[in-house]
Structure formats: structure tokens, C-alpha cells
Amino acid sequence: MRLLNDSDAGFILGLLNEPDWLKYIGDRGVQTLDDAKTYIHSGPLAMIEKYGFGLYLVERKEDYTPLGLCGLLQRDGLNWPDIGFAYAAQFRRQGIAFEAAQATLEYAQNVLGLTKVAALTALNNDPSMGLLKKLGFTYERQITLSGEAQASNLFLKVLS
């Protein structure tokens, strides 16, 4: 896992326009490489600068192929940072998301000193809900965050 940079714009452009991203996360209006660079700087990198955590690029160790995104997000209306992840379709169901999420949770506990981490999913995002349960998250309730049109499932994990 590493910080995103401008050279990742092509991957980000593709990832943010995959059908599952659009279905479960939503259209971020990223239609060009310049849009992708703006997203990188105003999204993940800005959050890391402000809070000390954010989304990171997950890449394969052997050849540095970008696989997806994973990290912590700070959202208005949540008492705890929440874990976020998204992977290109060809890299799903290989254990990558689980491994990166576990590393993120260890970082949250051991480096950031967090005692709880939240997670949000679309109401019908069964694959993400399955991963969260495998990671030890517990379903809490449905919530609608300020500024969001759709309700989400809220999960919590107590870090021991």
C-alpha cells in the first residue's frame, strides 16, 4: 500500500468508472485523466494531509500492478473513521481486500491508537458486507449521512 500520485490517474479513471463502483459507491464525475488527478489530490491526499489517514493505492508487490484502494476515511456524521476499499474487477475474490483491510485495521490500532473503526456499505453490497463480517465487524443499523440521498449499512469493529 502506498500514497497515490499523478501517475496513478489512469488506474483511478478506470476504477471509478467500473460498474460496481458506480453502483455501490456512486459517480464521482471522474471522466478524464485530469479529473482523476483532481480526485487524487482533493480526495485521498487531502484527507491524509488533514487527518493523517486516507485511502491508499494497493498494488501487487512483485510488479507494482495497481489493484485497488484501501484505507480509512473521516466522514461527517460518524464518530469513528471508517474503512473503505474498492478493487478492480479482475482482482476481486483473491484475498487481496482482506489482507489490505487487516493491515489497515492494524495500523488504525497500533499507529493511530483507534479503539473503534466503522464501515459503511450500500444496502445491497453483499460482497463488501461479507468481507466486513469476515474482518470481525458487526452490523449496527442503517444510517443516512448528511448530504447523502441513499441510506447505508453501518458496521462497527472494536479494536482490541
Provide structural commentary.
This protein is α+β, with helices and mostly antiparallel strands. It has six helices and six strands; from the N terminus they run H-H-H-H-E-E-E-H-E-H-E-E. The protein has helices at 9-15, 19-24, 33-42, 44-51, 96-110, 126-134, and strands at residues 55-59, 66-73, 82-87, 116-122, 138-143, 152-158. Strands 1-2-3-4-6-5 form a six-stranded mixed beta sheet. The chain is globular. The model has no long low-confidence stretch (mean pLDDT 95).
Shape: globular
Structural class: alpha+beta
Helix content: 25-40%
Low-confidence stretches: none
- Largest sheet geometry: 6 strands, mixed
In short:
The chain has 160 residues and is of the alpha+beta class.
Which descriptors would you attach to this protein?
single chain; 160 residues; six-stranded mixed beta sheet; 34% helix
Write the layout of secondary structure elements.
Layout: H1 9-15, H2 19-24, H3 33-42, H4 44-51, E1 55-59, E2 66-73, E3 82-87, H5 96-110, E4 116-122, H6 126-134, E5 138-143, E6 152-158
Helix pairs in contact: 1-3, 3-4
